[in-house]
Amino acid sequence: MPWISGRLAFSTLGCPGLPLPEVAELALHTGWRGIELRSAPDEPVHVGLSAAGRRAAAETLEGAEVLCVASYVKVASGKIDDERCVADLLAEAALAADLGARAVRVFPGGDDEHGDARAIGRLRSAAAQLPGGVEIWLETHDSHPRGEDVRRVLSQVDDPRVRAIWDARHPWAAGEAVADTQRALAPWLAHVQVKDNADAVDKTPVLLGAGAVPLREILRAVEGGGYDGWYSLEWERKWHPGIPPLADALAAGNDWVRSLDD
């Protein structure tokens, strides 16, 4: 297997509502050992879980690598006040800590010209109150799709516990060159999400290597920059229920990983 073997993960966005024992089974038997746990009321993992439920979840996932709790907190949004946003973020961070996850994923979600300032203030405030061992990972997404957009925020937050996720699709679809994304995110890069699409407009997932997202170029860029973290398949079956099951996408992903040596 190529150099990224052993650093493969998946998001439970690809298996919506799947019971945690079956999620653990996927992680332990497909070669994709890391997990991003989607945190939402319709999932087995959410902030409403009791202490006993959190302990049971952590025990069920033992042996897998829980990388992050994928929250839907939008740190740049003007539709929620600062206090509530920070409280929501910290609740997700507490869940991450209880599950043994390294981080909580957040979105930008900006909706006006004040998005950067909101995100900077909220991320600084939350970082100062994080449980030990948990980070915040801001994803290249929605209002901040490019590496440059995330860099603009994180450079001013200036806290080592607040880092970046490079979602392979969004900077590319926004027209940012891979080398520019890598340079922008390198000081903060914590995690890479891989996915593929037919083109920059169609968001329907296709199997890794079957689309136009420059995945090989992205891998070369981040590895060349010294990245040694995980590569997580974000197979968006929650939003595209007609695509193949996650298990099929992981199997195809293994074929693609093997092809990287070609």
Automatic annotation (TrEMBL):
InterPro entries the UniProt entry points to: IolE/XylAMocC-like, Xyl_isomerase-like_sf, Xyl_isomerase-like_TIM-brl
UniProt entry tagged with the keyword Flavoprotein: no
Assigned keywords, A-Z: Isomerase
Domain of life: Bacteria
Pfam family, one: AP_endonuc_2
A GO molecular-function annotation: isomerase activity
Domain Xylose isomerase-like TIM barrel: 26-259
Protein name as it appears in the record: Sugar phosphate isomerase/epimerase
